[in-house]
Amino acid sequence: MNNWFKFLYLSVFLFFTSGRAQETLTIGEKQTLFSKILNEKREIWIHLPKTYNDTTITPAKYPVIYLLDGEINFEYFTGMTDFIARTPYADIPECIVVGIKNTERTRDLTPTKSQKKSPVNPDVTLFADSGGSENFVKFLQDELKPMISKNYRTQEYSILVGHSFGGLFAINTFLTHPEYFKAYVANDPSLWWDNKVTISRTKDYVEKNKKFPAGKSLYVSQADNEEQQKNWNSDMTQAIEEFKEIIEKNGSLNYKHSFFKGETHGTVSYPGNYEALKFIFKGFRTDIKQLAKNPKQLEADYKNLSEKLGAEFAPSEAYLNVVLTFMKTNDFKESEAYFMNMKNRYYPKK
Amino acid sequence: MNNWFKFLYLSVFLFFTSGRAQETLTIGEKQTLFSKILNEKREIWIHLPKTYNDTTITPAKYPVIYLLDGEINFEYFTGMTDFIARTPYADIPECIVVGIKNTERTRDLTPTKSQKKSPVNPDVTLFADSGGSENFVKFLQDELKPMISKNYRTQEYSILVGHSFGGLFAINTFLTHPEYFKAYVANDPSLWWDNKVTISRTKDYVEKNKKFPAGKSLYVSQADNEEQQKNWNSDMTQAIEEFKEIIEKNGSLNYKHSFFKGETHGTVSYPGNYEALKFIFKGFRTDIKQLAKNPKQLEADYKNLSEKLGAEFAPSEAYLNVVLTFMKTNDFKESEAYFMNMKNRYYPKK
């Protein structure tokens, strides 16, 4: 290949490469962060909501969802948050999703050191590296969260989402550091861990504190017992039900427990996470037809929601634009003026 | 800015740009296709399953899901198909997802020309461009499907998925061209369209053919009536229920109808599509613990599934590898040998 031809060939190749690159569908980006606490590099997957870079609106701040087992859950989860935050049918506010990829999963997600013989083959010892969750939660609180707040426009509302050991971790974090997150989601949590140490901690918590902190949400999903038995997980089911009983006796928590018929331990996160977000943000969905007749309803709804969630939520500019278009198209002149006023109040143009 | 500085600045900028580009998370790519039938360029979003480019296994073929309203549904849908196709908990086979982006949605998805005054503002005429679905289905069958089969490794099993007008389109396609797809998913379909013309077509079909073709699946989801009324959609609900009655009287179809409490017209696709795929591929999930004791079960299950679906399905090499690892780790020697033999039979190494 002579040089001139090589140049042409490379140019064409580069052209197509960059042409193709523009045509990919992306949902986020990977970042790395060196954790001093864990003494290792961690990979973080970040998804920004649809309006994040919309230059036609005032730059907004967004709640943040910290998603454990990022490598397995990130794709459907980010698709879901965007889908159910679409106006005018939005069930939740738009969220930033931070997926955390595992390095040593058992070490990070389990609260105590506890080894176990494999139920299938007693020659195999499981969980030799367990017991590092206190370190891992420090990493989340003192290193990851500050990095996210520094680099992205975040609102003071964050949710921790986990499954299996990740669910165990979420519940342990709720009990030991309830101030770290506003809401906790535990899908089929491994509460059987270490002779149900987390159940004991829950009992201790209730005994000592009488009730749970205000403005917190906890959602627990549970897979089908029959399916669990097929996978040697019947002690998983028992522990979750025991936890449910303790929590349900204590009425101060915004708590929901769901049993999913037909779901396995491996699939329950999909419907569980959907229901969890709809549960946490219950009251967020607005009825645009009602707003035409009763425009004051919107701020009343947001006031209730903010009280329930223990954080300030206000109608987004993107949503107010949709409301305004609706009022204009359908000739609800008074309501249109009302919401125009509201928009100017929340989002004054400089 | 002097030239030397400009050069440095640009170099650094390019370096970071390309560095960042490598770190994005992608879920598919956009392709364009000029349709002679529609006389326009169409944008198609393509998602390939996780194992598609896995060089450690024999190149496999995959069922194809044609997803209408691609721009709204592609992200969560592709995340979902990958998630529920994960071994060993897989509920469905890995699938290629083809999202179709709209140009003139009403034109493409409605079966007849039918205009309507806006229920909110009678001065506005809706659906002036309706009635082009026969053309659009020809585009799918004669242009899009051949392009996908030519460029990707596809299995002879395809599913059409739509919502609202897309659901109307799916049901109309099922009635007028049942041979085009093996399964049809209609989320909250707009069966009220044009004085319920599709209900009449369904009655005619049943009267003429007595029963539906074998090996076909049809799934219909329905949003909550109360929520529908808030959005002026109560005639939507009535028509879907009328359709359900006609179909349920005719027992020959692999049919499921689901009502989703609390879901709106805009949100029902999310749980609907999940349930639809689990319904269509019911029988696909295997019990790996049972396989240890009774390895013959696997091919028996696949035989039943293939009969039900009207297409050949066989255990994937990726799945057989998971089964083999399980048998080896847990010292099920006989079953391991059995599945090694099966793997060599289906996927002989050249």
Automatic annotation (TrEMBL), chains A, B:
<dbReference type="Pfam" id="PF00756">
    <property type="entry name" value="Esterase"/>
</dbReference>
<dbReference type="InterPro" id="IPR000801">
    <property type="entry name" value="Esterase-like"/>
</dbReference>
<dbReference type="InterPro" id="IPR052558">
    <property type="entry name" value="Siderophore_Hydrolase_D"/>
</dbReference>
<keyword id="KW-0378">Hydrolase</keyword>
<comment type="similarity">
    <text>Belongs to the esterase D family.</text>
</comment>
<dbReference type="GO" id="GO:0016788">
    <property type="term" value="F:hydrolase activity, acting on ester bonds"/>
</dbReference>
<dbReference type="InterPro" id="IPR029058">
    <property type="entry name" value="AB_hydrolase_fold"/>
</dbReference>
<feature type="signal peptide">
    <location>
        <begin position="1"/>
        <end position="21"/>
    </location>
</feature>
<keyword id="KW-0732">Signal</keyword>
<protein>
    <submittedName>
        <fullName>Alpha/beta hydrolase</fullName>
    </submittedName>
</protein>
